[in-house]
Each structure stands twice: as C-alpha cells, then as structure tokens.
Write a structure and sequence with these properties.
Helix content of chain A: 25-40%
Shape of chain A: globular
Low-confidence stretches of chain A: none
Order of helices and strands of chain A: EHEHEEHEHEEH
Strand content of chain A: 15-25%
Structural class of chain A: alpha/beta
Radius of gyration of chain A: 14 Å
Oligomer: homotetramer
Strand order of the largest sheet of chain A: 4-3-2-1-5-6-7
Distance between the termini of chain A: 26 Å
Number of strands of chain A: 7
C-alpha cells in the first residue's frame, strides 16, 4: 500500500538542540502521528527533527525531511524521503508549507520563522512548550499536541 | 519496511503535454524504476510527470512530486509524497537537486531548465528523445534509459 | 555618483496596513535613512514599505523592493529598484538578507517572519512599536530607530 | 534624479570566465545600455557579469547584481545594488525574472538555465555568440544586441 497523499501531513518543528525531556516528547509525537496514519514533515536534521522522525519511523510511519542544503546525506537517518532544497534557512517556509497542521517544540529563531510562516498561511500551530506567539494553540502533553493537531486537520474544509 | 533514503533517487522530467508514445514510454520508465527499487522524483503535475508516477505507483514504487504552487492538491493522483514549494517554475531547480540521475523526455523550456540545472551540478542526465544539450547521454528506449540512469548512480562515488 | 555598495543597507519591515501614526513614522524613517546615505530595502508593497520608500525617495535616497511576485509593476511607486522573486511570502527571508540592520514596525506574521530571519542570521533588529521578540532592540521614536540602526552597522566588524 | 522603475531593465548573462573578446563586448554592452538609460541586471559575480557592470557603471548607469550567496560582499565592485539571495544557483531564475529582455553571452549550464527561464516566461533573449536554443534571437555585434534588446522592450505591450 503506497503512502497516501490524502493522509494528514503534520510538520513538527523545534530546535537543533533538544533537552532529554523534549527529545522524549518529540519521539512520542512521532510515534503517535505514525500510529494515526499521518505523514511527518520536518527540517530533516538534528534535535527535534531527529527525535520525531525516529519515533515515526520506528512506529512504521512515513517521514519527509525538507533540507537546507543540496545534499540528501545531510538528513538524519530516520528521514525516509529527503528533499534537498539548497535554500539555506529560507527552506523553513517550505517545511510548514506542505503541512495541514504544525506542532512546535521549543526552538530559537528558525523555529519562530516556521511558526510565523504557518500562521501567515492560516495553518494551525499547536505549541508544546513552544514560542508564545498569538495564534499558537498550547498543548500540555505530547498526546494532547497530536490530538489537537489531528483535530485541526479534520476541521479544515 | 520504510522507503530507503539510500535507494537510488531518479528524477524524470519532460513536458506538461505528452504524446501517446511518450506517455507509454514514461509509464514504462516509472514501472522499471520502481521494480529496481528507485524512488521517482518529478515536478508532480501532468504529462510526463503523471505518466511516470502512474507507472511507478502501479509497480509498488515510491513517488515524490516537487510542486510549483503552495497546495498539495495540485499534484497528480500518483504522487505519493507531494512537496509544495510556492516557488513557481523556479522549483525546477529542486526537482533535479535531490536526484542521483535524471531521465529527460521531450519538453519545452521548463524541461531545458531542469536539464541545465542537473548538468550544472554534475548530475548525469539520460535523454529519451530529449533536448540535444551537450552532456546529455542519449538512450534509444525506456529500458535503456532506466539501465543507463541506474548505472550512472552505481558509478557515482 | 553611483549608489555605493558600501553604504549602509537598512531593511524596514512592517504591516501591509499602517495607521496614520505608523505611516508618518515610516516616512520619517525613510527620510532620515536617505539623509544618512543609507540604501533602504523593503518588501516593495503597500503600508509601511510604501511610506518608508516615499520618505526615502523624496529625500533623494535609493530604495530597493524585494517583491513576492514575478511582476515589477507590483512595486509601489517609490521603489526605485524592484526585484521580482516569484517566491511568494518566502521572499521575506530575502528582504532582510541584504541588510546590515533592520527596523521593524508593527505588522503581523509576515513581519514576524522577517524579524525571525534577521535574528537567525545575527542581523540587528530595532523595533519601533514592533513585535516583542527577544533580541529586538526597542526604540521610542523614528529618530532613535534610525540612530540605533546606523550605530549597529558601524559596530559590525 | 532617482533611477526609474519604468526604465528598461535588461539582464545580461554569460559565463564566469570570459575571453578577452567577450569581456570587451560585455563592457560595450554595459556602456550602451547605460547610455540608453537602461538598468542592467546580472548575477553579480565575475566574468561577463563583471565586464558588463563595469561598462555600465563607467557610463553612469545603474547596475543590480542578484547574488547566489548570503553576503553582499560577493558582488563584483561594479555592482551598485547587490541583492543576496542565499539560493545558490537557483537564483539564476531571479536574474532574468526582473528583466524586460535578456542579452546572453557564451556560458555554460548556468547561462543555459537563465536562457531557459527567460524563454519559459516569454522574455525576449538576444544571443551574442550564445547558446543555440530555439527562440533566441542572434545578434552579430554588441551594438546590434543592445539595439535588439531595447527594441524588444518597446514592442512589449
């Protein structure tokens, strides 16, 4: 059975460095998204992107990594479909462009740019300990973040 | 078993309109690439991109579509992983960026730009009735095009 | 005398809609930047971008507009060098990329993405009633914003 | 008097390495374009881009360089308005996007991609010893190339 373009596509963003707690939460988010049949999109590199891709892959899900550089090999090992862009950090706009909803973990300015682009294009953003930006829906746990993200997709016309 | 980031990634480019003969050849190319375990990358829309994605999907392969617009739904129905870019035709550079080799069918200036970008980045291009550009390796049949493309990947260090 | 590539390049960002007070402040910022010999970069469209370009042009300065679309004519009439990108809002990253410093007026998520990209690349951001983002240096008046922006350029190695 | 957004915008493309003859022709093209009040757009780096920008600047014209990297300082010294993009060679699409017409000197695949993008968007391309691509209008001399480029602008509705 091929991956389904009609499956929910959820982007997960966050810092290149993740604390142990964030790493564990991100892995859980990946596992829950995969279990729900969602395709997981990330920036394809270390930190939150690696943890969520690891969780999703281990649960049998599909992971896509939108990379800043031109070389597929800069993806972490749990990215199954690596998309080099050569756009540098400008690729942040593309990480969230293909998503029906975004889950945001703590990060720095790169994460903030992704949250801004998602909201700019009216894509729901669920924050898990993430930037306090007006319009981000806060979640208390990985479980709740996934539930809210999938719910927001269902509601999208 | 997840799709393998280490599988050969082959981009297939060509016109938005395809003759019956080109359509049949493109479908064959897609089927043969899938049978060889390659991931098929296209621009995700009509013509050659649709035919090759159809062939690959029906043979159980994985297809990726790098779209010009911002909406995943502009992909043809055989694109399994749709990557909206919002870059317009500038996304042509990205269609070939993630590929180990490119198979080029007849097309117009968009296809020419893709061939140019592939050659600019030293990615082998196999032409099947395609632009007479210095550096493109001509193939006589769909079979030969796929064989040459996969061979060029093997040879890449 | 040609415009000087060694002149300070200051990007000014803010919303597509500007209140009368913001419009007046933006025009003043443009006039002061031009008087200081700075090149003014904006997103090239309405609101803050138009007001600051108007002020700079009327004071004899040079204005550059980095446009989202493919058509030069979408620039406001005070943009002297219009750069169409066809990147849509992803061009926000480019608006601040060429700047030595950024002055941010109130705006929405597009402005937030520009502030995020500037800070991501260690470009100083002066805020004039603008987003409360960690790292943005607040200014109380147009005068102070210009002074701080030019000062930050002088300090850059 | 500010540069005029309504002036003809002519992109000049060609290789990073230029023979003495091409260098001289490119400088002449720059000088003639400036004399005609046109704004000259290039990729901003060495070879043809440097020669044409030198000619235009010395004749009092305005030159714009659309750069592949993120640093304004990678522009040659005759680029007056440097626009860093961080897009790598993908920026080739943007070099010709803002132009009413393109003059193409000999080059390699980068130049071919620029010619392809111009023709894709129905922008007239005048070739001066340049790629034999269907749709390129050949010119025999720098003088004729400039004349044909400006004429094609006049004819554009």
């Amino acid at each position: 059975v091929p991956p389904d373009a009609r499956a929910p596509h959820i982007a997960v963003v966050g810092g290149y460095e993740a604390s142990a707690a964030v790493d564990a939460d991100a892995e859980t988010v990946g596992r829950l998204l995969a279990a729900a049949g969602a395709i997981v999109i990330t920036g394809g590199r270390q930190g939150v992107a690696a943890a969520v891709s690891r969780g999703a892959t281990e649960a049998g899900g599909l992971t896509v990594g939108i990379l800043p550089g031109r070389d597929r090999r800069e993806a972490n090992e749990w990215v199954q479909v690596a998309v080099p862009t050569g756009l540098g950090e400008t690729r942040n706009a593309l990480v969230v462009m293909g998503a029906d909803a975004v889950i945001a973990f703590p990060g720095r300015y790169g994460t903030l740019s992704e949250v801004a682009f998602a909201l700019l294009h009216d894509t729901p953003v669920i924050g898990l300990g993430a930037p306090e930006v007006e319009g981000v829906v806060p979640a208390a746990t990985a479980d709740e973040a996934v539930r809210l993200a999938l719910l927001s997709v269902t509601r999208t016309p």
